[in-house]
Amino acid sequence: MTFRQFAYRNVVRNSRIYGAFFMASFFSVAVFFIYSMLMFHPDIEQGILGEASLIGMVGAEIILVLFTLFFLYYSMSAFLEARSHEFAILLHLGMEKRQMNRLVFLETMIIGSGSILVGIIFGFSFSKFFFMIVREILHLDALPLYVSWQPFLLTIGVFTSAFVVISFISVYFTRERKLRDLLKGDAYLNSTATFSKTRAVFGIALILSAYLLAFIVPKTSLIGLIVLIPFLATFGTYYFFSDSLPCFLDKARGKRKFHWQRYRLLSLAEQTHIMMDNVKMFFVVTMVSTLAFLSVGVLATMSSYTIQYDRLNPLGLVYKGDADNPYERNHIASLRIQLEEKGLSYHLSRFFVIKQTSSYTHNEVEVFRESDMNVLLSSFSYPLLELDSGEAVFIPYSEDAIKKLKNKVVHTVLEENDIPLTIDSVYPKIVFPGSIVSVNSIVISDEDFRKLINPIADKNIEQPTYHLFTFYIPQWIETKDIGQDIEASQYFYMKNRFSPFYFENAGLNYSYILATYSLFTLVGVLVATVFLLAAGSFVYFKLHTSLEREKRKFDVLKRMGLTDTELKKLVNRHLFPQFFLPWGVAMMHSAFAFLMVQGILKDIANISIVKEVVFAFGFFVLIQVVYFYLIRWRYISHIRS
Q1: Are residues 550 and 636 in contact, defined by beta-carbon separation less than 8 angstroms?
Q2: What is the DSSP string of 418-435?
Q3: Average pLDDT, whole number, for the chain?
Q4: How confident is the model at residue 66 (pLDDT cuts 50, 70, 90)?
Q5: Is the pLDDT of residue 517 over 80?
Q6: Which is nearest to 535 in space by CA: 70, 61, 211, 63?
Q7: DSSP secondary structure string, 174-231?
Q8: Rg for the chain (alpha carbons), in Å?
Q9: In the structure, what pLDDT confidence band is assigned to residue 519 with cuts at 50, 70 and 90?
């Protein structure tokens, strides 16, 4: 038998351990290859997002490569640790350290070559399916399947290099151990683990500090604290697993009434060793799971905004310009012609808005005329306004504003024209997008509006009066091609000097938002899947590297009279913390992160992501429960054999 044959048979003989490593590796290769196919596609930049789609693909590739390098290194380290007894025997029989390094390198490259080959075949087989999805996302007429050497060469080059680098790093950076320690296997680690009460308290304090900052950041202007939160959570999580949990378990073992029970006596003793021996594994699984939760949570946030966009932006087209805007007539005529040519029905409303100073706040207030507002409200089929002289109504800029202003009564005077007003209600519907109407906007009666002769006194105020044109379009999603010439001229003006007009196309904005969300969904879901698969694989590796020791332990217990039912209970108490404790901590981290995001989004876009985040977390819990029972079934079958 040659040395290469020996390496190959070692891989086949350890297929139970290498199976999960191979599955996770080939899935990473497949995802990377699919992104490479999209990245090199000649038509990918022609979509509505242009180069942004290419940037998204490149970003996903970089994340996958960096994470795969880390995953391969951790997995290889776990495998080398699991096979320490085997390596000790080989060294004892006369194998040189150089030959053992070569053996590990050959085994790694055999697994790597297989995962690259299978991953590329799998990825190419599903490329057409993903092209169909991306075609709809990026609004392309066609995205045909193509064959090019670039994706194949990039995938083979990147992952071959990754396996070569990791195999060398895993071998040469593995700590040197004596032969007798290698023969002990993972029992060598149990005698070296300690914990500190000071670090235990410090870990809890760091995590609580991160949670407290996440809670208070949305209520303050100290947005820079967001950068500090990940560092606090990361170091706190490590100390939590390395010191806080072992300290807590040690305290529990000191309580005889609690500890000296049939199952608790065994499970607490076992969990103490597990926590001390697998600190890095628990830490890595927690942080990787947190990244996966945050990825899907961000997608849920974008989904929430996409769903609520039509409610927050009820108008299809909005055109706002100076009172002396020279382009107004041509632009409005052009928009009407384009809408009619496209066969879209619309309702045009025109507003003349005057800014005044309120004596109540001494700030500017935008004043709308009642008859102009009723024209727009009639197009929505909303209740019309009926105002007497001296009465006014708030125009809401968000749903929160409706709640805040609902019972508020303000007595003010429009100072420039000495018009007293009583504002005792807010219109109960959102009629303007938040980007158009200011936070201080009111509607007054036509009689009072005719008295507004003098403009606002502050000369520094831009647009003391302006014209506003709103197009209510029932099929506003189809307006993305309307007003492209106006968009281009607006961009030119804003790039060089102040623009005399502002144009907003809700259909175009929505198509950008929807395409961006869909693209990030495609990228995020696949990346999150790789993260979750790797997180589960870490636990799987640790369980199976210590399987022989666990099997011997349960054999002793069965000879002492342990029943099958009791065996299952002990296995549950053995496996449950390893699966659900890291996920529980990751969910706590993610929950406070989204609590912070929810507070910020409430102020910026007035959207709620609670339902979406709860749904995503529930879905992840379901996946983990299924995975737990699958591994539990396999684990019990190995223990019984």
Answers
A1: no
A2: TEEEEEEEE-SS--S-TT
A3: 76
A4: confident
A5: no
A6: 70
A7: SPP--HHHHHHTTHHHHTT----HHHHHHHHHHHHHHHHHHHHGGGSS-TTHHHHHHH
A8: 33
A9: low
